[in-house]
């Protein structure tokens, strides 16, 4: 029998709950509200870019948002530096039958070979300056960045305005009234002009 995305999302939630008894994956409180706090929170990102394209998910942790996006049909490269978490992600990819669209870099993003992605996401991985620094080499002017930023979206954006250019907007989260998602394209570092002698 073919499993629907809903079956796979339920199976994924069970895998996380089970693994959470062995390692710290997500906050214990959020396990009780897994659908809203994690599944819906991740799934909403798909609506913020045109369909299709290859996604890069940096600091995937338990697989959020990367595994959810892959279950929902996206092609995703997950990046996770912690060994136990990376092993869990490999287990999810195998068990949920996602090998045709999810791949894993089990290591730091800094060690991943440069390639271009159509979409870049990262949830709770790093503040915007570090996130842009570590990921810009995987982007080009058409890459859509979709970055859930909780309550700090606007203030984090303010911190990069002097050093980064691009078309940035802040979109309210559908799952948390206080949270927002930074969506950007054509992201590039400001070129510093040489001071005249
Ligand atoms: C706070 S967790 C968030 C996990 C997940 N994205 C979520 O929203 O639940 C951040 C994750 O980023 C990973 N991480 C931190 N620095 C990293 C790096 N340089 N490269 C790859 N992963 C990194 C950590 O191991 C951790 O699993």
From the structure above, extract its key features.
7 strands, methyltransferase, Rossmann fold, transferase, globular, 22% strand, alpha/beta, 197 residues, binds S-adenosylmethionine
CATH architecture: 3-Layer(aba) Sandwich
Amino- and carboxy-terminal Cα gap: 73 Å
Q: What does the oligomeric state look like here? A: single chain
Query: Helices and strands: which structural class?
Result: alpha/beta
Largest sheet: 7 strands, mixed
Overall 3D form: globular
Helix/strand order = HHHEHEHEEHEHEE
Q: Into which percentage range does the β-strand content fall?
A: 15-25%
User: What ligands can be seen in this structure?
Assistant: S-adenosylmethionine
Low-confidence stretches: none
The CATH C-level name is: Alpha Beta
Q: Specify the number of helices.
A: 7
Tell me the total number of β-strands: 7
Number of domains: 1
Stated plainly, the CATH topology is called Rossmann fold
Function: Specifically methylates the N7 position of guanine in position 527 of 16S rRNA.
InterPro entries: rRNA_ssu_MeTfrase_G, SAM-dependent_MTases_sf
Keywords: Cytoplasm, Methyltransferase, rRNA processing, S-adenosyl-L-methionine, Transferase
Main location: cytoplasm
Could you characterize what this model shows?
Keywords: Cytoplasm, Methyltransferase, rRNA processing, S-adenosyl-L-methionine, Transferase. The protein is built from 7 helices and 7 strands; from the N terminus they run αααβαβαββαβαββ. With 197 residues, it is α/β, with parallel strands linked by helices. The chain has a single domain (5-145), classed as 3-Layer(aba) Sandwich (Rossmann fold), CATH 3.40.50.150. Strands 3-2-1-4-5-7-6 form a 7-stranded mixed β-sheet, sandwiched between helices. The protein binds S-adenosylmethionine (SAM).
């Amino acid at each position: 029998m073919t499993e629907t995305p809903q079956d796979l999302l339920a199976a994924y939630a069970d895998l996380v709950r089970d693994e959470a008894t062995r390692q710290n994956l997500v906050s214990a409180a959020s396990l009780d509200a897994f659908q809203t706090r994690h599944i819906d929170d991740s799934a909403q990102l798909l609506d913020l870019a045109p369909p299709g394209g290859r996604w890069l998910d940096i600091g995937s942790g338990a697989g959020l948002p990367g595994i959810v996006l892959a279950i929902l049909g996206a092609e995703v490269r997950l990046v996770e530096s912690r060994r136990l978490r990376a092993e869990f992600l490999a287990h999810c990819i195998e068990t949920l039958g996602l090998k045709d669209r999810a791949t894993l870099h089990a290591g730091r993003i800094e060690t991943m070979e440069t390639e271009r992605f159509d979409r870049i996401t990262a949830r709770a991985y790093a503040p915007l300056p570090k996130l842009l620094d570590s990921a810009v080499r995987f982007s080009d002017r058409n890459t859509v960045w979709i970055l859930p930023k909780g309550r700090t979206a606007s203030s984090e954006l303010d911190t990069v305005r002097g050093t980064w250019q691009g078309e940035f907007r802040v979109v309210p989260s559908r799952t948390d009234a206080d949270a927002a998602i930074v969506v950007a394209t054509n992201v590039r570092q400001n070129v510093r002009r040489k001071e005249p002698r």
